[in-house]
Amino acid sequence: MEVNKDLILRVAKNARLMLTSEEAEEFVPEFKEILEAFSVLNELDLGKGELSMHPLPLRNALREDIPEPSLSREEILSNTKHKKDGYFLGPKAL
Amino acid sequence: MKIKEFLVELKSGSVDSVEHTEKVLEEVEKINKEFKYLNVISEELARECAVKLKSKPSGKLAGLPISLKDAICLKGVDSSAGSFMLKKYKPLFHATVVERALKEGAIPLGKTSQDEFGFGGFSTNVGLGFKVPLNPFDKKRVTGGSSGGAAGLAQKLPLHVAFGESTGGSIVNPASFCSVFGLCPTYGRVSRYGLIDYANSLDKIGPLSRDVYGAALVLEVIAGWDKKDSTSLNVPGELYTSYLEKDVKGLKIGMIKEAFGFGIDPDVERKVREAAGRLEQRGCKIVDVSLPLSVKYGIPAYYLLGTSEASTNLAKLCGMRYGLEEDLKGDFNEYFTAVRSHGFGKEAKRRIMLGTFARMSGFRDAYYLKAMKVRTKIIEEYKRVFKTVDVLISPTVPILPPRIEDVSKLSIVQNYMIDVLTVGPNLAGLPHANVPVGFANSLPVGMMIIADHLKEGSLFQVAKEFQ
Asked: Can you name the CATH fold of B1-467?
């Protein structure tokens, strides 16, 4: 895999980040340095080794699906200026 | 005066909660002007809490000033996780740790500075418009990170406990650079509800203080299951302060061999070996142990997992509902992209990019999944070692606190390597603590103690030897 400006721009697009041409160029050597250093993992023979998503095994910890008191609509909308008729107002979806 | 005596005096009425809080707020203002440890001072809330205690001081922490890393939500007070993206965000609820501390009478002083979202080991990666905290022993040097403001304030304000947060070493690292005790509990021991997250499978909240008793008491209050955090462990907390009475005689302590390689500063090595000698004199048995996987492969595994989780966590920050907003221009992709590009700082963008890359189709097996397999191996390595020793020790950070200007000259990987000794216990979710073990060239040196899952008590037992 070659780390180049195209790859950086593809990653940025997926991450919903807009990079200037200079920023994208700066990321190329940085990504190369990081991935080169991380390639040390290739020394390990991990085969079908187990994946750890968490450091400790977690049991099914979901609570019963019973409604509980929650914040009011006004409170929920208090941190945004983009609202209308008690709803969040977002950008165009279509 | 120490925290234990202070709490007794406050309860007996010989210290007035309101007068004391006023004095502390004045002091904090002064400290902050010089050292930049707080993004926000929550004067109003502090006064309100102090007044409530005046007539009847009750609760385990009655009158004790606490501070909160900016990423820990304090209802109605700006909680930004050090990011421009969340500047002026006022949470509608307290984090569970705050809820529990306030119920026990703690006085919240404000929100401490940090690397943006916790993305750093020096607290120099603060978001746009935030200030870099300065080392309490030399203002040209870093506090360490990412809970840099917490550690600095813990050093300058002894009758206080700071609440920090660690993902890959963000409690013990700044505790080491600022010469305070700092403890990161077992993953899940303390609820993460109300913590602005960096990486869900790695984040932990823990106390920092010059006074080990204060930290132990705070952990007693905040530990324990929380129905609002499905990853919190359903295991009752312990009476951690009781471990401060326990003798260390007979404890078997493993010195991590590999931690003394990797270009360690000879002064750091000398101080930590002296500290180990002190434990030996107190009747501990010191043995060499080897943890080759953790020290060699911890950094890539941690950064791949941490950034993968961060890149999905931060997807919710897009200019809607809360945080930075702009005029609603363009379609949703254009709008989200514009807001995120303006709101995130350089390191935040880098980590989002790295995490997005590691999870992308075609790279996922080679990076994200592989890192999770390495994590399993690292956990197994620690578990094997804990069959033969009670706790492990090593330097917390291999170097003395560097100058701020020198940090800016480091390459990205050199920057990440500051976490080389701390990522292991963080990946494995093991409780670990920093204890100050002296000074070299007038700069603090810290030793890290690591214990097996849920054995926070042993950390206090050993740490009290260095009070």
From this structure: Amidase signature (AS) enzymes (3.90.1300)
